[in-house]
Predict the 3D structure of the following.
Amino acid sequence: MHLAADLLKKQFPSEIVEVVEFRGDTTVVVKPERIRDICRFLRDDPTVAFKYLSMIAGLDYFPESPRFAVVYNLYSHQNHDRLTLKAYLASATAPAIDSVTSVWATADWHEREAYDLMGIRFKGHPNLKRILLPEDWKGHPLRKEYPQRGDQDAATWVNRRIDAKK
Amino acid sequence: MEPVKPIPQTETMVLNVGPQHPSTHGVLRVVVELDGEVMVRAEPDIGYLHRGIEKMCEGRTYHKCLPLMNRVDYLSGEVNNFGFCLAVEKLLGIEVPKRAQYIRVILAEFTRIASHIFWLGTHGHDLGAMTPLFYGFREREKIMDLCEMVSGGRMFPLYFRIGGLAADLPEGFIEKAWEFVKEFPEKWKDYDTLLTENEIWKQRTIGVGVMSAEEALNWGWSGPMARGSGVDWDLRRDNPYSSYEDFDFEVPLGTKEGDTYSRYLVRMQEMLQSNRIIRQALEKLPPGDIKVDDPRVSLPPKEKVYTDIASLINHFKLIQEGLKPPKGEVYQAIEAPKGELGFYIISDGTAQPFRVKIRAPSFVVLNATNKLATGRLLADLIAIIGTMDIVLADVDR
């Protein structure tokens, strides 16, 4: 088993839900409440030293429950290996998790993107606003109930813009 | 007599750079707050080129995602497909034949040279050096011709397939590739003499956009950006994929300062190293198949489709339904010209991906604009955007 997974099990026994191995990738499913502590521990522990956050992705498992999840992919330059952290969020209507911007500066835009496209709130993020879409856009396109062809939403947005200018 | 007006308070001024500006390399808007000529804050405003590629993938079969991936970072089209194909192959648990791996490496390294040449040309042009653009595009044109030979497309060759390649290398490709590989180091000297010891170039780049190694990791920098700060990390060497372990190459590192000039030196050396890898790949290119022999993934040969009913059905099912990877999720990262390009793919067992997340290097690097720009002169912003080597299609996806 992955070294970091063992360490996490020792350090946060009540937080680890399961460890999944697939095609050489290790995914540790954790509870969302103490995500910031877990991330900080993985960054500062000298044996694993995950000093680098590759990406954060928001997931939507609609219509299953729990519906939303957040995935963190970490890389260690010391051991040249990766670890994926995955946290399922309890709420299907107002999904939220602690921000890890204080652990890795690069989390800033990743979290803003997940907020913008998936509608997940990151508590404690210094500047949580839309990043790719216009600020007055309605809805979160990567959610499963959002239509593949969003022509209608785009058209109403353009119309709103034109009306605002009049 | 009129009262004497009080001396005006010095206020900061907000200036919009872009979105339509040659030095923003696409449609990037940077909101800059200026105190005199010094930047107090520089906040990029992105999303002008957002096409929703991640969403579009969810409604298509895996093969139909490939043309979209070409367009993520349009200056290194084939490298994006490289990463996506590797990720899906990892999901399927297959490995493509050695010959296909080598050909992929050749194409990927050619693309890296082309992308770096484009960076050199535009970066130089932004800072007032016109000639590198003309010199560089001479060689870039030859690489575009090579891409055109394999598939007909120049910017977007669309030559890689899940499980291998669309076809074997065409006649005459090897000779033309050798021609390029042999003459490139000489041509490279042209670029080197133009800028490396150029006093104006040095004054514009040394000490601009400084990032320490530790901070570079904190900000998620990878590829030449991190190596320019002295982070000794290259995914081709440290987590080899597609037979990169067979090749002997160095990972150039920048100076300790981690400034724009340092990153310039790194990218310049990388071009030569790429050339070295292509040379070895051409020398050692093994014979054999160019796609996996697996009916779940690869189309059967055309003559068999016409004569054998099983092959006909197989062909029909693959085209109509698409390949179906098992349930699971993988992350595959490759060393793209701009840094770590990652694909996080979740399969729910159907023919369409459940979720595709693209970890784009430009998006991550641009996040640090404010940190690099604060306290510098406005003119340095152009150097900083240039050294990031961003492509806005890669940022916005």
User: Anything to note?
Assistant: The longest helix of chain B spans residues 98-126. Residues 79 and 108 of chain B are 6 Å apart (CA to CA).
